[in-house]
Amino acid sequence: MSSIASAALVPLIALGRLREAAQPKSRFFGPPRDAFPELIRDVGEALPDYDGQGFVLATLLAYLQDQQINLLTSDHSQLAEYLARERHATFVVLTEQHRAAALARLDPAAYDAAVLERYYEEFVEHSAPGAGVAMLEGVAFLRATLAAVKPGTVALVTIA
Q1: Do the bridges between strand 153-159 and strand 45-50 make them parallel or antiparallel, or are there none, so unpaired?
Q2: CA 140, CA 19: separation in Å to the nearest integer?
Q3: Is 28 exposed, middle or buried, given 0-12, 13-18 or 19+ CB atoms closer than 10 A?
């Protein structure tokens, strides 16, 4: 099963509403109402999607963690974990602190596609030609996403 990754710039003041909307609401008639995607569209600003597979981006996040570039934890980690449980997807909340600490370190020119591909293949335990290039595209995606973060906002990355 493949997955995709997307990102949206969300005002900090809307994070509580995202938490409330995470779980579809039961209705007396009809299927549960899922307000989460609509809320992200209404309060957020869509950022360019990652064109590769979401699991490649997830592996890149693990690689970056190994390189001491921690994008997986923040003051909003509990929200990301809650959203993951309720939405059955992976969520990463990128903050101004991430931007300050990691933006300069996410220059795709600083990474070697062959090294990234070897990491990916070891991580997933099978051959994956082209995974290094896809991971480089993920570095560019994360850099662009972090660059969009401005005061009073976070970038919500979804891998579903």
Answers
A1: unpaired
A2: 28
A3: exposed
Q: Is residue 41 part of a domain?
A: no
138 lies in which domain range? 5-12+47-159
Contact by Cβ (8 Å): 22, 37: no
Q: What is the pLDDT of residues 49-86, one digit of tens each?
A: 999 999 999 999 999 999 999 999 999 999 999 999 99
pTM above 0.85, yes or no: yes
Count of the separate structural domains present in the chain? 1
How remote is the C-alpha of 69 from its chain's centroid? Answer: 14
Residue located via tokens 């992976």? 90
| Dist. CA 66–CA 82, nearest whole Å | 24
Task: Report residue 135 as tokens.
Answer: 């991971």
User: Rounded to an integer, what is the distance from CA 32 to the centroid of its chain?
Assistant: 26
